[in-house]
Amino acid sequence: MQLAIATLIALLPIINPFSTAPMFLSITEGDTDAERREQAGKAVIYMICILVAFLVGGTFIMKFFGLSLPGLRIAGGILVAGVGMRMLYPKDDGGQTRAEHMESKRKRDVSFTPLAMPSLAGPGAISVTIGLTSLARSWLDFASIIVGILLVAVLVYATLRLSTGLVRLLGVNGLHAMTRIMGFLILCVGVQFIVNGIVEVAYSPELINGVLQAIDNARAESSF
Known about the structure:
- The chain is mainly alpha-helical.
- It has one domain.
- The protein is built from ten helices and no strands.
- The radius of gyration is 21 Å and the shape is elongated.
């Protein structure tokens, strides 16, 4: 249960359904309530599939490309911190060009892109999901992380379904304020990822052995 809650806390600020709600309303403009419900449901299902796929295949991906966990955390921290900075200073177009925005509105099905990918299951969420594999020691742990992803999915779906009333309640300025709060939290998470990665590199046996070996070599050369 603790691992599921940790997954919820780690992913929810990254996915940030509050920032997706205005875009969801915009690209489904003119749709009926049933059509919006269908698009939101499919987008959430796609998001679950993407994150679970990277969760299960995360270890294989790391081994295949020769990636270390500290390196992944540093790279993910830089990426997450960049996402946080963009949320602190968002663009009015939500990161989409005018052509992309018009194409999204013309598309009949917008659940996979741009909703599921890259808005909900974007690079930040994927990197965090892969990082969560370091906490899994058994299939029960993987199941707990998947439960956390499902909890996030429920909250995302509820936010998208209530987005019309949410915009009316908070207003545009309120949604922007929530986005900036989430952005600050994400920036802090990213910086902490970088710090943890650097600390792990500094205390890694390979680095320590390399430093000791270099010291021994320097002493041996100086003795001559």
